[in-house]
Amino acid sequence: MLKSANIPTSFALSILVIWIMLDSWIRPLSFTDEVLPKQWSLWLLPAYIVLFSVCWFILRPFYRVNRTTGHQIGFIFLIYLTFHIVFFFFNANTDRVLASLYLISTWLFVGIVSLLSRTSIDQWHRLLYYFLYGQAVFLASYALIVSFGTTYVPVENLQWLRIGPLSFPQLYVGEQGSFLRLAGLMNNPNTFAAWLVPGGLLAWFYLLRQFPRGQSLLHAVFLLLIVIALLRSGSQTGIYSFVLLALLTSIRMVPGTRRRMQVAACYVTGSLILCAVFAFQGLLPRLLSLNGRFTLWQAGWHASADALWFGHGIGSAPRGLQEQLGERILYTFHSTPITFLYEFGLIGCLLYGAVFLYLFYRLLRIQTTDLAFLALLLASWLGLLQFTESVLVRPSGFYFIWLSLLAYASLRRLPPHDSITTVPTPRRTYTKGV
């Protein structure tokens, strides 16, 4: 629980954490990429309605906080998605179950986070950061421990660690005798790495802030666990984004301009050495192509041409990619902007880009506090992730974190003397004595 919040509020904010992670933790331990069976959407929809109802009864009355005028771009974006989903609902290409889940869960979540008080939304983000940190430590520790298991089920891509009567499974990708990409308890290695990155950045942030005090050693151990698990996942996007955002964190946290330049120079030198090693081993073209994602992006661009302005409807991307590649697949275009372009058209894609630019603009202006800087780190993490994964086109933890960051960034920051209600005092007048 949060020390500065009462018990009902802490309980309600904990329910929001469950809301964020529900999609990831209820999936079966089997390999799925970006396309999930429809029955999972059917289970999620009533679960979100129940969570919303509980939060509504606990957190009443809701508050109407002051927001910047720029938040209207986010509202316009959501209105466009709503009308688009309703208009395309009976289209043959639309996934109606996914459309219903997307529409209802989005407005329910926005209805909660946009009406939280200023204090509650700050408390909610602190709780979210603590949870992302703890979850990353747990996922990394579990995956690394189970990686010592010797029992493999190749058909199901499962590795088992057996300790007496207890058995612990995890998902992996690869062939035995070669490099096995760990997925832990997630549905694929990329999702596993995506959840490790924010935890690793938080560990690095707290390590720099508390160094050289005693607690910094604990953060260093957690950071080491997360980094090793991130490398074992083999996710290029996860590794790239962590290195870049760790550099951003270092430059912001290290005092002194000269020392910041030295840190940046070390990062650049290390990156050049790493690229030279990859080029010498012939791995650089594969890394630059991001394991064939350029092919998927080109297919998405060509598939969008016949309905460029308004798209084909939500959930239609797998069918569009299948038509381009001519084979049955379990993923979309592996890019949120390309998927938005295909499903919601150029108008939806441009609105999505405008909302992301507004989010970065606001967070860059208010990132003078640690809480706002961590929000900027999370937004940057999602910004890098969305280029190679279709994570913000589906109701998932990534998508709801993005909506929560929008609600936080759109708050109007008041000066300290305006943040509380004051009672004006009458002005004293003095008269000279005669």
How do you describe this structure in short?
With 434 residues, the protein is mainly α.
Indicate the low-confidence ranges by residue numbers. Answer: 415-434
Q: In percent, how much strand structure appears in the residues? A: under 5%
Radius of gyration based on Cα positions: 24 Å
Termini gap? 65 Å
Describe the strand arrangement of the main beta sheet, using strand numbers: 1-2-3-4
Instruction: Describe the oligomeric state of these chains in a short phrase.
Output: single chain
Count of individual beta strands: 4
Mean pLDDT reading: 82
The ordered string of helix (H) and strand (E) elements is: HHHHHEEEEHHHHHHHHHH
Helix/strand structural class: mainly alpha
> What is the 3D shape?
globular
What characterizes the major β-sheet? 4 strands, antiparallel
Count of helical stretches: 15
- Helical content band: 55-70%
